[in-house]
Amino acid sequence: MNKWHHRFLGLAAHIADWSKDRSTQVGAVVIGPKKEIRAVGYNGFPRGVDDAVESRHQRPEKYAYTEHAERNAIYNASYTGTSLDGCALYVTHFPCCDCARAIIQAGIAEVFVDKTKLTADFLERWEQDMKISTEMFDESGVIVQVIDNDGTTKPMK
């Protein structure tokens, strides 16, 4: 068991609680090579955008307003001038293909995903998107691992 994997994934889950999304809360933490926190993000509206407007929380309009946790973490790093090259990303849910592109472009080397979020419903709904993300990660050399409840990791298949 790797306590660090469990801790960082737990931190991503804690950060997910900050999301005001009414259906799915996603959290992400980017960790540097010396186990330092480089950036965090959760799914939500951009800085300064009014999240009190009710219609913005309803599908399909919410998709135009909501930024994903992974990209929010990357943008937050950019905002502070923090490099993510060679870092690891811990995220509560498997990254969509838009986030996968950002992860690759930011130089993130590893992605760790919570196994408990890979439910049958999630896998069915996001199957095509996950296939594209996985293909891009494989081709670009980004390592993707799934973290079990006990903190052990397994390569994403």
Automatic annotation (TrEMBL):
Keyword vocabulary terms for this entry: Hydrolase, Metal-binding, Zinc
Annotated GO CC locations: cytoplasm
Pfam families hit by this protein: dCMP_cyt_deam_1
BP-aspect Gene Ontology terms: pyrimidine nucleotide metabolic process
Entry binding sites for Zn(2+): H68, C96, C99
Superkingdom: Bacteria
Residues of the CMP/dCMP-type deaminase domain: 3-129
GO molecular function, one term: dCMP deaminase activity
Names of required cofactors: Zn(2+)
Active site: E70 (proton donor)
Family designation: Belongs to the cytidine and deoxycytidylate deaminase family.
UniProt-recorded name of the protein: CMP deaminase
